[in-house]
Amino acid sequence: MTNHFPIFSKHTPLGQPLIYLDSAASTQKPQVVIDTITDFYTNEYASTGRGSYWPANAASAKYEQVRHQVASFLNAKSDREIVFTSGTTDAINKVARSFVYPTLSPGDCVVTTTMEHHSNYLPWQQICKEKKCELVVAPLNQNGILNTLALEAQLAKGAKFLALTAVSNVLGTQNDVTAIVSLAHQYDVPVLVDAAQAVAHYTIDVQAWDCDFLVFSGHKCYGSTGVGVLYGKTDYLAEMQPANYGGGMVQKVNTIDSSFRPIPHKHEAGTPNVAGVIGLGAALEFLQKKGLENVYEHEQALTVYALNQLAAMDSVTIYGSVEQRGPVISFNLDGVHPHDLSTFLNEQGICIRAGHHCAQPLMQWLDVAATARVSFGMYNTKVDIDQLVAGLKSAYQFFR
Amino acid sequence: MNERIKALYKTHIIEKAKDETHTGQLTDATHVIEAYNPLCGDQFTLYLKVEDDVVKELKFNGYGCSISKASTAVLAESILGKSLTDFGKVWSDFMEIVNENAKASPEQISNNEYLLAFAAAREFPERKTCATLSWEALAKALITH
């Protein structure tokens, strides 16, 4: 599989092969995505939706074709439900600012969970602060799985919105999104699903999940940085005011007032990341050709293998549940700070993540300041994990 | 084990990271300083008792990597008993030692082997903030005062 990814044919500055275990932060890029973006800039570049000339119309057609592709990838009902954004963070902020914020009155509450990334936490915290509302952070059970009883109690109190991740970027916990959305809908609470950690790993079906909004980033599913997707149910996207105003989203502008294009375009003010969107199209096609079922199976096997290898080391503490886990493992090596570990492994060409992983509320819940984290993509193998384990053993000896 | 790692984690650093001589807190501190790195979550609280410009006592506690712990311990040793004015020179030397853009070699700057132990931070710019965390916080707090 690594032969599709040119970076793996290179060596690190210290001359080792690259062992990349940080796909939860960002995935490496397959040649086909790089080629598609280069080809677009080289051979038929123009902005979209504006010029009536070649290559502008070719670019527009490709851009809209990717919208269709994303709709089909997510099993959305219509292309109109797909808005291109600059990433997950941008998409969540749009929903927080333009959909939820106007509905809030002092004393209302918005619910999120302890396992959220800061990007699915801060936008809600800030709008709640501004509107004098309460941000309720639904707790986890001891094993790092969402406590649905406590969540339901909050929803029953009349929450205005629920924002929840599909997969924790720290614990790997894979939430039962269908069940949670259905629970929220019993109390008429709309739900946003942060699928940033799901999109590259298993099949998303927005109709089966019945989520009201779903967001993800291109760079976490083998696409480029700077592009993301906001899926929203038609009525909600239509009801939602634009978060940004500018070119490309208008029907008619005059000095007194203006009218805007229908969805999805009213939510895409300004020149979009056309190359990023076209690259995303190539990335999703690449993923689908590999087959998400195969990717899931491969990464689950790796995760189980890694969990077993790590669990066999007395010096390793693994966080989170072993069940229902995406390809993300956070851990600590006894007596070795994650940053020391990360620097040590880097010298062997092994890339792991160290720190709070943009999830400080979860770190507080775990009662640790930082953890080490490994996460897998389709290109990882058991050999990578064996190298990691060998690296951990020598780090343990070195720092003790 | 490669030589770079050995250089970064010199024996002095590993030794000082485990040294608890100055661990603790002071109830009668004249200065309580928070050193916090938002990027990694490392955090130390420094308690100083300063009388007539002289640092009479220093204790610290908190959480951090070997480099930040060791550099905090070395900071404590370097400042204890000194006047803040005299410490200014040590502080600048330390900052130069870890500065990858400095013209002078570390050995030209100082002959204190504990300060020099951090020179490899020049090769690891991503770890420089670990080395300077408490040093920066201390300077900022004392200047503010």
Automatic annotation (TrEMBL), chain A:
Domain of life according to the entry: Bacteria
InterPro entries membership: Aminotrans_V_dom, Aminotrans_V_PyrdxlP_BS, Cys_dSase_SufS, Cysteine_dSase, PyrdxlP-dep_Trfase, PyrdxlP-dep_Trfase_major, PyrdxlP-dep_Trfase_small
SUPFAM superfamilies listed in its UniProt record: PLP-dependent transferases (SSF53383)
Keyword Transferase attributed: yes
Lineage: Bacteria, Pseudomonadati, Bacteroidota, Cytophagia, Cytophagales
Function: Catalyzes the removal of elemental sulfur and selenium atoms from L-cysteine, L-cystine, L-selenocysteine, and L-selenocystine to produce L-alanine.
Keywords annotated in UniProt: Pyridoxal phosphate, Transferase
CDD domains named among the record's database cross-references: SufS_like
Domain Aminotransferase class V, first and last residues per copy: 19-388
Family annotation (Pfam families): Aminotran_5
EC number(s) per entry: 2.8.1.7
Nucleotide-binding recorded as keyword: no
Protein name according to UniProt: Cysteine desulfurase
GO terms, biological process: cysteine metabolic process
Listed cofactors: pyridoxal 5'-phosphate
Family: Belongs to the class-V pyridoxal-phosphate-dependent aminotransferase family. Csd subfamily.
Molecular function in Gene Ontology: cysteine desulfurase activity; pyridoxal phosphate binding
Native species: Roseivirga pacifica
Catalytic reaction list: (sulfur carrier)-H + L-cysteine = (sulfur carrier)-SH + L-alanine
From TrEMBL, chain B:
One Pfam family of this chain: NifU_N
Gene3D superfamilies named among the record's database cross-references: 3.90.1010.10
Positions in coiled-coil regions: none
Superkingdom in the source lineage: Bacteria
Span of domain NIF system FeS cluster assembly NifU N-terminal: 9-129
Any one GO biological process: iron-sulfur cluster assembly
One function term, GO molecular function aspect: iron-sulfur cluster binding
InterPro entries on file: NIF_FeS_clus_asmbl_NifU_N (IPR002871)
Protein known as: Nitrogen fixation protein NifU
Species name: Roseivirga pacifica
